[in-house]
Amino acid sequence: xxxxxxxxxxxxxxxxxxxxxxxxxxxxxxxxxxxxxxxxxxxxxxxxxxxxxxxxxxxxxxxxxxxxxxxxxxxxxxxxxxxxxxxxxxxxxxxxxxxxxxxxxxxxxxxxxxxxxxxxxxxxxxxxxxxxxxxxxxxxxxxxxxxxxxxxxxxxxxxxxxxxxxxxxxxxxxxxxxxxxxxxxxxxxxxxxxxxxxxxxxxxxxxxxxxxxxxxxxxxxxxxxxxxxxxxxxxxxxxxxxxxxxxxxxxxxxxxxxxxxxxxxxxxxxxxxxxxxxxxxxxxxxxxxxxxxxxxxxxxxxxxxxxxxxxxxxxxxxxxxxxxxxxxxxxxxxxxxxxxxxxxxxxxxxxxxxxxxxxxxxxxxxxxxxxxxxxxxxxxxxxxxxxxxxxxxxxxxxxxxxxxxxxxxxxxxxxxxxxxxxxxxxxxxxxxxxxxxxxxxxxxxxxxxxxxxxxxxxxxxxxxxxxxxxxxxxxxxxxxxxxxxxxxxxxxxxxxxxxxxxxxxxxxxxxxxxxxxxxxxxxxxxxxxxxxxxxxxxxxxxxxxxxxxxxxxxxxxxxxxxxxxxxxxxxxxxxxxxxxxxxxxxxxxxxxxxxxxxxxxxxxxxxxxxxxxxxxxxxxxxxxxxxxxxxxxxxxxxxxxxxxxxxxxxxxxxxxxxxxxxxxxxxxxxxx
Length: 672
What we know:
Layout: E1 4-5, E2 8-9, H1 23-26, E3 44-45, H2 48-86, H3 89-99, H4 109-112, H5 118-124, H6 126-130, H7 136-141, H8 143-155, H9 158-168, H10 170-175, E4 181-182, E5 186-189, E6 198-200, H11 203-207, E7 211-213, H12 214-238, H13 251-259, H14 286-309, H15 311-321, H16 332-367, H17 379-406, E8 417-421, E9 427-428, E10 431-432, E11 435-439, H18 446-449, H19 451-459, H20 471-484, H21 487-491, H22 495-515, H23 526-535, H24 539-544, E12 545-546, E13 549-550, H25 559-567, H26 576-604, H27 611-620, H28 627-664
Parallel strand pairs: 3-4
Antiparallel strand pairs: 1-2, 5-6, 5-7, 8-11, 9-10, 12-13
Helix pairs in contact: 2-8, 2-12, 2-13, 3-12, 9-12, 14-15, 14-16, 16-17, 17-22, 19-20, 25-26
């Protein structure tokens, strides 16, 4: 065991050994292996008394500033609202910089910063890395940003904001861009009335994030203190010259609070979670996520239903998909068939997530009175949350792998890639190979040269890496770029990419909600998740593994899809020829889906899904064999026959009238 030197646990080479090497402790203390590099060594070693004094000073300042701001908002809320809204962008910026000249001016510091020598970087940019959302560009452009920040930080306690504030510094922690203090294995209480109290490390409490190791906890509380100090100074400047004795009010302020804050000129591509710093703190809203999963599932089912029943919808799908250069090769229909297969998989995934969320909702209702910071999570709920995180990570990784191959095919991005199609029939390790794809330029150049490409590629980063960019920040940057740019640039984000990125954003929002849950569950490694999947039977875990290992994937055959497309649509007036053509269309389309059904059956049989679950999934792509589909086709046939009969009758009537006119030798006007 390493020797104990005072309050420090020292390794023989001088490293500060963390109390535990688990995932949670690795995010609260610097892992021993990382301390081989100067970048990841602690800057200062502080004794417990000094550490407690520092945290107490921060917490006291936070408490005083928050109470002070609450009083001003209650008394002068209308004045704050009116004055800030009326000021020009330049005057707003002047106030912000007068309150704190160190506030960052430009937005997206973390995204656009290329780094540099790490020692001066730490000193110069510590504040902006602690509070990346506080920049003059954002706060001066839209008055609701600052007003929302003031209201939500005053209304909700610092303890409520800890999960979000902690996650905000995740990348900085992992990259070593913030200087850290070390106080042995001491931690800080991050909830309740003991918020800010220095305590010894306890494994269970640390894994629940009820307490956080001093190095990381200090950053969180320092950031909160800095933010409240800035907000107090800003509000004082806004109210400068106000007569305390004159009549004021806060009814308009309260009305603004009730209405909520919205970004002006926002295209609102994604959910509100991209505006989290200026909204209420995130909460684990089970009902909301159940509704999101169900809505996405319904949309996926509707898409598949239309692809099977509506030839016009399917033709439009093929036309929209086949817009890139790769679709001009022999692989065109193989790739489109692959995307249809992906649509089936997406539907399955949303079904799985819907059931996972419903299960957690049931447990939440059962244990609602037992889920509080400082308490152990019920064992079954803790396991369910860990499995849900595992499900989301697996789904996101597969989804991102698919998008990394899909987006380079699209017209708005294909110029950045070199594609070399392989001859038809090429395989590797039993899998079809469409060809090779290689990027022409470095992604790093994209921030300045092609922001849209840079953002989209970063959005596809691995969801389980701690040094990834924050998804909500990337989505906010994408929203801003789309709102600010021209129509040509916006068109690069075509409807297919938009729809797929929207699904991805929903998955990331769910993952964020699960990871910010407090009390936290014990994070598992990928191997542990796979082991849990084998031991715990849910719809997701049964679809994940088979008896011999991972479930297998098979390709849909494209032949009938190609035939359907080449037949072309039934056009012109409805006639017997039109009906015959329409019947041929449906026959080819039904043939594709019949083959897809059999392929999917073989694929699902490689999983541990129950037979009724396999049948339920296959039913989604078996519409052509249902009574409802037969009735739809019959109704279309009868409607066509009626149209044919009406046309014949109209023609006979016109012919009869013409004969009568000629027999009488007169004329009259015909109504066309």
